[in-house]
TrEMBL record:
Record's protein name: DeoR/GlpR transcriptional regulator
Organism field: Sinorhizobium mexicanum
InterPro entries: Carb_Metab_HTH_regulators, DeoR-like_C, DeoR_HTH, NagB/RpiA_transferase-like, Tscrpt_reg_HTH_DeoR_CS, WH-like_DNA-bd_sf, WH_DNA-bd_sf
One Gene Ontology term of the molecular function aspect: DNA-binding transcription factor activity
SUPFAM superfamilies linked: NagB/RpiA/CoA transferase-like, Winged helix' DNA-binding domain
Gene3D superfamilies on file: 3.40.50.1360, Winged helix-like DNA-binding domain superfamily/Winged helix DNA-binding domain (1.10.10.10)
Annotated keywords: DNA-binding, Repressor, Transcription, Transcription regulation
Amino acid sequence: MLTTQRRAMISARLAREGQIVAKALADELGLSEDTIRRDLREMAAEGLLKRVHGGALPLMPPLPDFAARQAIDSDLKRRLGRRAADLVKPGQTVFLDGGTTNAEIARALPHDLRATIVTHSPTIAAEFERHDAEVILIGGRLYKHSMVATGAAAVAAIEHVRVDTFFLGATAIHPAQGLSTGDYEEAAIKRAIAGQAADTYVLATPEKLGAASPHRIMGVNDVTGLVVPAGMSDEALSPYRECTALIVA
């Protein structure tokens, strides 16, 4: 097989499966693992993929900082936030993950809602200054990129909370590779929260679908549903219909 053919296959598989495992691909093609690894190194040097131990992931553009992300697709995020807020019922205990999209859930919740809001994000907690809802703020080491608490103290506090609904934030959502994010500790915190929740929902902006970040949180089939924008093609959404419920905003 020619080098150009291997590269085309690698690119297609990354787009379809969200990862390349060098040994598995070498065995499948009847080639040496060194050959595949060389292809991955060269493609990474050209900015076509991201090399990781044992293989490769799709190249994800660097995320803008928290302040910059607040201005990205704000109308779409508001629409998703309003639809997600409809899922919250009086009397529930709700955990809101950090992030600019989940901030729109907080803004959409009625000010007179009688509920308990749990969050490890000081920016999310601040959104409830004038709400009737009780707010529990989880502390720990502040991960400034997402403005959320991480670390052992946060995990210990989360273990003592039971929630009805968790709105989880992810940087990437792939039907095979699942939900993922860019920070190892943040991924662990998200798993811990989901483990305490009866239902877990994810607000999915279009650029996150079909992508994979380095640190896996959980499978798409492990969440109760994805809140997706109206107007997306059936081709884009069909792989997710087999995994979980889709809630259209």
